[in-house]
């Protein structure tokens, strides 16, 4: 520090240092690695705010709509563009796990192969989903920190726990058959592994039961895994996501079923019964997804300022493309005939529709967060926190009348 070498007491030296560090030397001494840094442009670093001569609520681009100087009232989400892929993979893994558990309990021996395939799809989805989530968080330690507590009121905390437990159960479900299989992967690892495999064969019944139990637990967690991301979105202040809090979770779960069926349709099948099961599972998911999309639009239609963000721009294009792909996939499933090309085309279209749906919802929410009217207008119409908390009475006991008046 150049100023400290100019003589005088330390306090006098610090007082003479007009370097923009904005520190009161009578209260503390600036020290540490960055203590010698100076602000090059003090006016730029600490701009003096200009006097406001307009009313905040009437200073936006549309003078007849409430705003706040035309600037966003809330922060836009800072998630990476890969987060919608995490939504898709989580839904796929959850739905596949649920189908696998149902086949374990009700399918019989003829559908054992499809049940094992669902286990592997659920396992792969949990692994890929965890990787995508950690990539967004920045480092694995942040994901582990989310598991330091168990908070049922937090969708994010519950989601981290559901993803972790589902991943552990699916790992156990796919690992147990490998341990008990003669000549499998474990036996090839060496003498020690052979001993483990030999022991596992003697206890094959227990391992099989363990794998089945783990698969059932993963299936129970499947639907929450497919839908918790929508609950997480709905619990934010982002207008599009908050306005669809009643229908968005159902749409994500139905879309997860369509996603799982779409991927299973792309994989080879061993029997006609497997094909029928996957087809019916996909039909149920696609019909549910299309119906839920209509419900989402109806829920959004209560506020034009919010719903327009799902109709315009890139989000609107993705939303329309998603519905078109899902509907086309549904039509292919309903057409008579068992041609393989129809199954593949249906699987590709169903997958494209599910991915586009997630990106449409993500983009619409991001754009709506930058629109102050999408935040203020619904609240003044009574569709904001007052509606959520059922609090329509003012502090003086009188009922609130919506829209609320603009305070001048």
From TrEMBL:
Keyword terms, alphabetized: Cell membrane, Membrane, Transmembrane, Transmembrane helix
Subcellular location: Cell membrane
This protein's record includes keyword Cell membrane: yes
Chief place where the protein resides: membrane
UniProt entry tagged with the keyword Transferase: no
InterPro entries, per database record: Electron_transfer_protein (IPR052049), NrfD-like (IPR005614)
Ranges annotated as spanning the membrane: 85-106, 158-179, 209-228, 248-267
Membrane-topology annotation of the record: Multi-pass membrane protein
Entry similarity comment: Belongs to the NrfD family.
Protein's name according to its UniProt entry: Polysulfide reductase NrfD
């Amino acid at each position: 520090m150049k100023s400290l070498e100019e003589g005088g007491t330390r306090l006098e030296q610090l007082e003479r240092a007009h370097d923009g560090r904005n520190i009161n030397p009578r209260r503390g001494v600036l020290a540490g690695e960055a203590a010698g840094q100076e602000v090059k442009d003090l006016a730029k670093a600490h701009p003096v705010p200009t006097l406001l001569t307009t009313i905040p609520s009437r200073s936006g681009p549309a003078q007849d709509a409430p705003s706040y100087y035309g600037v966003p009232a809330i922060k836009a989400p800072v998630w990476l563009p890969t987060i919608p892929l995490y939504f898709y993979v989580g839904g796929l893994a959850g739905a596949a796990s649920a189908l696998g558990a149902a086949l374990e309990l009700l399918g019989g021996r003829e559908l054992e192969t499809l049940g094992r395939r669902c286990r592997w799809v659920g396992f792969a989805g949990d692994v890929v989903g965890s990787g995508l989530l950690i990539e967004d968080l920045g480092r694995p330690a942040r994901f582990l920190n989310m598991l330091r507590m168990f908070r049922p009121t937090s969708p994010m905390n519950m989601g981290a726990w559901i993803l972790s437990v589902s991943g552990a159960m699916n790992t156990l479900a796919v690992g147990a058959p490998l341990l008990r299989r003669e000549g499998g992967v474990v036996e090839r690892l060496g003498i020690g592994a052979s001993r483990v495999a030999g022991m596992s064969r003697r206890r094959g019944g227990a391992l099989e039961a363990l794998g089945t139990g783990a698969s059932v637990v993963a299936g129970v967690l499947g639907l929450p895994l497919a839908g918790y991301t929508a609950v997480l979105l709905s619990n934010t202040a982002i207008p599009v996501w908050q306005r669809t809090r009643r229908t968005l979770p159902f749409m994500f779960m139905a879309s997860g079923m369509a996603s799982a069926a779409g991927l299973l349709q792309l994989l080879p099948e061993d029997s006609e019964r497997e094909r029928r099961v996957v087809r019916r599972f996909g039909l149920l998911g696609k019909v549910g997804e299309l119906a839920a999309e209509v419900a989402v639009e109806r829920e959004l239609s209560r506020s034009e300022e919010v719903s327009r963000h799902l109709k315009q721009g890139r989000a609107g294009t993705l939303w329309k493309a998603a519905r078109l792909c899902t509907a086309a996939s549904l039509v292919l499933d309903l057409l008579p005939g068992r041609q393989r090309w129809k199954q593949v085309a249906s699987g590709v279209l169903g997958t494209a529709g599910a991915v586009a749906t997630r990106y449409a919802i993500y983009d619409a929410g991001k754009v709506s967060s930058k629109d102050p009217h999408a935040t203020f207008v619904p609240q003044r119409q009574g569709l904001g926190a007052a509606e959520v908390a059922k609090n329509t009475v003012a502090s003086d006991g009188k009922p609130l009348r919506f829209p609320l008046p603009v305070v001048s």
